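Appendix B: complex inputs.
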Amino acid sequence: MTTVERALDHRRNGDRDDERVDGRDDDRDRDDERDGDGDRGNSAPTDRRALDAFDTERWVGVTGVALALVGVGVALRQPAMVVAGAAAIGYGLYARLGEAGEAALALDREVSDRTPDPGDEVTVTVRARNVGDAPRFDLRIVDGVPPGLEVVDGPARVATALRPGAGVAFSYVVRASRGVHEWGTTRAVVRNASGSRERLTELETPTRLTCTPELATGGDLPLRGLTTVSHGRVPTDVGGSGVEFHATREYRRGDPLKRVDWNRRARTGELATLELREERSATVVLLVDAREEAYVAERPDADTAVEASVEAAGAVFTALLAGGDRVGIATMGPRDCWLPPGAGTDHAVRGRETLATDPALAPTPADDRFYRTLWRRRFRRRLPGDAQVLFFTPLADDVPVDAARRLDAYGHLVTVLSPDPTVSPSRSPASTTPGRKLAAIERRERIRTLRGAGIRVVEWGDRSFPAAVASASGRWSR
Amino acid sequence: MRPLAVVGVAAVAVGFLVAVDRGLAGALDLSFVVVTLVGILGVLQGVRYASARRGRERRSTDLGEPERRERAAVPGADFDATVSRAVSARRRWGRTARDDVRSRVREAAIRAVARERSCSAERAAELLEEGEWTDDRTAAAFLSRSISYPIRDQILGGLPGRSAFRNGVTAAVDALERATAGIDAGAAGDDERAVDERKTTTDRSGGNR
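Resulting structure:
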């Protein structure tokens, strides 16, 4: 429900009305304390850019009607018709009366929670006051809701008339989703009294909402065998101390007695030492495909593959850090994002921040162009030599396939984790268009190409990511 | 237009003169015919002005729908749009769109057939041309120059509201889906084999110990 309250008699010198509005000002003060931005929105006009006024063509032809009426009156000697024509001339004059001025408004936007959790409903209240000298007979205000947020209750707009000093307030509810959401330009359309002229004014009231999800757990992905020299939990093909059998070798002086193969000694009389697989830690870089091509979903209103990738990357990030591996984050996209591999609590916090709020992983695609050669060069320069790459991509085109194969060829073992945006939203085959089918066929072909090149691929569509990982790890030998 | 404007200016000037000096009005002929003519002239001119409204759109600022979250692209939606364009456009304009659609399906088909039959891309292209890759004749005809559509498709495609091209696309994609479904059954095995091969190359850093 929209609450459109009008504070028409909101004068700045104290009377009863003012007290009522003051109650709300308290709210605003609290809000201001939070973001430390003074008492704007009270009287200072908001930064604005007014476009040229234009004709709406609403009254076109009214003078013609007037003239025709007078003509008929004269021709038929009917004074009543001539008088009616005169009234129409009045309308013609009315249409030319007045100009649509700029919307000189003091805007103030208040958000009930600036750091909500994903899925929370956040109430946004916008107050506008006419701080210009002229009354605005027809004023429409449309708030610049961030493209990544969906309004779930009430329209983010209001239509009203404001005389100088009067104000209007309207509120709506948005559902929070991951990312930093910045409010864009609020647009105010002013028309003159007759509606024959119209002017658009764009007003800037920056507001920011940051939604940082808790990182999910359950992405305990078996890593591939590229490791660092430190101990960890990735089994390697190097013999030493560990838990899993690797090989036997001739006994050398100084080998621990508990690793002597006593069975063999009993059978053949020779001394042999058991080698176990050494378990080491790995350096892992989580690479998220955030190109425009990756912002795809099975339905236009569903979460994009980038969201699914980020959520899965979060789960893997937590799991790997907990296992003692060093984890970094990078994106493949027009904007640069690089969190060097690291470990520890600080790093966990930084990783969570990066996944939630980095502009490179914004909920909507960036407008910038993506240069893949430049990106590849920069990414390779940054990537530590012993790092393996977990590549999150929906595989919506051939670029990620090429990138994964190149990285793998450079020796950074790559595992591709792919949310499937081609699954049909409903199971009935009739709703599956040829385009969707073809996209699914092409994507499957890409996965086959990757697997053919020895790159592990996990895909998940309607199943959850942990379930997909669990079933894939069962299939993989190390 | 110039003489008309001169007449108009002269008429207005006479009007003002009459308003200033009433005596001049007597010189004007106010007979039935003249007044009726003036009236008809007014009507005609009025209708001309008023008809300016016809064909004019009212203009207003498009405020859009900021309440809706930005729509995500759906995989394959671009392909469906191209198919619709190819079907609805006129013969000449539709050709590029039809070529786009056909080449995209053909590319996917070549890859799939080459993988399924374990042959080269050239051989796969030959198979497509010969129509040997599927037993659906409509699908085969869609991707081949030498095969024509079955009679039934040609008749149905000629009916209003039906399109042989759209029929062909649907049949070809369906046939492709069936052809690739067979390969998928072995996908899990592929994966294991691929990783097994790589086992020999694992632990590069450990080797330097």
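Residues 77-184 of chain B form one domain.
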